[in-house]
Automatic annotation (TrEMBL), chains A, B:
This is Pyridoxamine 5'-phosphate oxidase family protein. PANTHER family: 5-NITROIMIDAZOLE ANTIBIOTICS RESISTANCE PROTEIN, NIMA-FAMILY-RELATED PROTEIN-RELATED (PTHR34071), FLAVIN-NUCLEOTIDE-BINDING PROTEIN (PTHR34071:SF2). It comes from the Bacteria. InterPro entries: Pyridox_Oxase-rel, Split_barrel_FMN-bd. It holds the Pfam family Pyridox_ox_2. Gene3D superfamilies: Electron Transport, Fmn-binding Protein, Chain A (2.30.110.10). It comes from Hassallia byssoidea VB512170.
Length: 223, 223
């Protein structure tokens, strides 16, 4: 019953509402995580929840987040408390004939676990590389690499991609049978995060044009 | 010192890291909430955090969320536990000359508080109207209104917009002075959630074209 292509749902990661939208396939989870740019990271202190948006990177089955060692969030996470990391891609607005059946198309990932500090210098640099490449593939090789001081001033945490699930809604509205006769427009408004024309920094050195990976920037079909 | 145009920061809502990015102006908070489509709602049970993406609506200083009475999230929230509701708009990728100074432009809102069940039938209907109109202005008047059974089968919760803050980053990268000499492209890649061409439902009644509010759908400059 143990399929390595799938994660095993647990009490907290199993999709209970509308279970047919749940998905535990590793490749599906990878794809959503790789298309997303930010996660919402949740943790609790004395049952007081905090939900903070932050960037992330992925290397195989490790998710990396980073920040200043002074960050309240990171200082909390390094104590080993439970984390819930959620990534959501909004794909469309689902317009039904009744108010009740309006919905959204989306792909989301929820990961549960505890985060660890990445201490090994090589893994830390690799995490930061993955971090930059996750946001803008091709960028890392062109920019000034982190100095020793910058590396020391960056806290990198890893969260294992072990206890996780995807939840996905796609397709058309599902109306009550009787409502299909109504003279109301119904369907889907697709949504996508789209890059506009790059804005050069005012202090750019003369003659430098945006690289191809900036000019053609898109989140769709990454990798 | 009490300016009604501003929310008063509290221990948990005050922006501590990079405080100049914090903003407590009511109109700024409204605008971000009104442009957003989904929030990430955090709560904790025995210090186990959960972060769930969900849609929302706003009427003045109340945020509304809704769902099935069977939802684990809503069943937890109605017990009066603490909630952290976060809305994030990603506005751009900030490309610096060094890996270290890469950043993102964003506008986010974090709201703390406890949610209450909306029991009053009139307020509940008004919340659902706000909910639909928040996502697609103009939609509510055209669709079949909720039946008594649908209203009974929907749990609506309100969260007061009292303890909240915005955090905003805009503009160009901030590089170390020495790095401005590097021959590296730097600037901002603007990002925006854009609506594609509407996809009509396959069972649409003949002769129905998408309404203007669907054809011209945009999240920018809502209201």
């Amino acid at each position: 019953m143990n399929n390595p292509e799938n994660l095993t749902p647990t009490q907290r990661s199993q999709i209970k509402r509308v279970p047919q939208r749940g998905n535990y396939e590793r490749q599906v989870i990878y794809q959503i995580l790789d298309e997303g740019l930010i996660c919402h990271l949740g943790f609790a202190i004395d049952n007081q929840p905090f939900v903070i948006p932050t960037a992330y990177g992925r290397v195989e089955d490790q998710l990396y987040i980073h920040g200043s060692p002074a960050s309240r969030m990171l200082r909390s996470l390094i104590t080993g408390i439970e984390v819930c990391l959620t990534v959501t891609l909004l794909d469309g607005l689902v317009m039904a004939r009744s108010a009740f059946h309006h919905s959204m198309n989306y792909r989301s990932i929820v990961i549960f676990g505890t985060a660890s500090v990445v201490k090994d210098a090589e893994e830390k640099l690799e995490a930061l590389r993955a971090f930059t490449e996750h946001v803008v593939p091709g960028r890392w090789a062109e920019v000034r690499q982190p100095s020793r001081q910058e590396l020391q001033g960056t806290l990198v945490l890893s969260l294992p991609l072990a206890e996780a699930s995807a939840k996905i809604r796609t397709g058309a509205p599902l109306d009550d049978e009787i409502d299909y006769d109504l003279p109301v427009w119904a369907g889907v408004v697709p949504l996508q995060l789209v890059a506009g024309e790059a804005i050069a920094d005012s202090r750019l050195q003369p003659g430098i044009t945006p690289p191809t990976y900036i000019q053609n920037y898109t989140r769709v079909h990454v990798k």
